[in-house]
Amino acid sequence: MPARGPDCSCGRGPSVAQGKWYGVRSYLHLFYEDCTGASPDWDGDGSSPHGAWAPLIWKVSLSTGTLFLLMGAAALAAGSLVPPKLEGIGEEEFVVLDVQAVRYNHALGTCRLVGMALCAAAGMLGAV
């Protein structure tokens, strides 16, 4: 039986062996054969018209945005829900400033600020 030229322009599939076609083929091979990249606007030089980086950039930005959103929500929750410590201890005339409590309260404020920044960054990455 003589070898017959492929109907699909991509030349790939399960029935192709070293450039020869075997067996009887119908029009169904156009639907079931692996012809990825055989669109009419494809250049054939290995580059697709939409760019190979677009799906990768979309996936990375979505996953990074989700991670930033979760970390920002955790930081906001930790900074807002944890109660602050009293900074001044003592009576009206004699007040002692607790330096560790001041640092702790400052860390809570920083945690809230970082949480808001991470949520804003997640929103920008989600918009891309």
Task: Summarize the biggest pleated sheet.
Answer: 2 strands, antiparallel
N-end to C-end Cα span: 55 Å
* % residues in beta strands: 5-15%
State Rg.
31 Å
> Percent helix among the residues?
40-55%
Query: What is the molecular shape?
Result: rod-shaped
What is the string of helix and strand elements?
EEHHEEH
Number of helical regions: 3
Let me know the average pLDDT: 77
Broad structural category: mainly alpha
Q: Report the strand count.
A: 4
Describe this structure as you would to a colleague.
It is a single chain. The strands form two sheets. Strands 1-2 form a two-stranded antiparallel sheet. A two-stranded antiparallel ribbon has the order 3-4. A hairpin with a 4-residue loop joins strand 3 (88-90) and strand 4. Helix 2 packs antiparallel against helix 3. It is built from three helices and four strands; from the N terminus they run ββααββα. The model has no long low-confidence stretch (mean pLDDT 77). The radius of gyration is 31 Å and the shape is rod-shaped. By secondary structure, the protein is mainly α.
Task: Give a quick precis of the structure.
It is built from 3 helices and 4 strands. 48% of the residues lie in helices and 8% in strands.
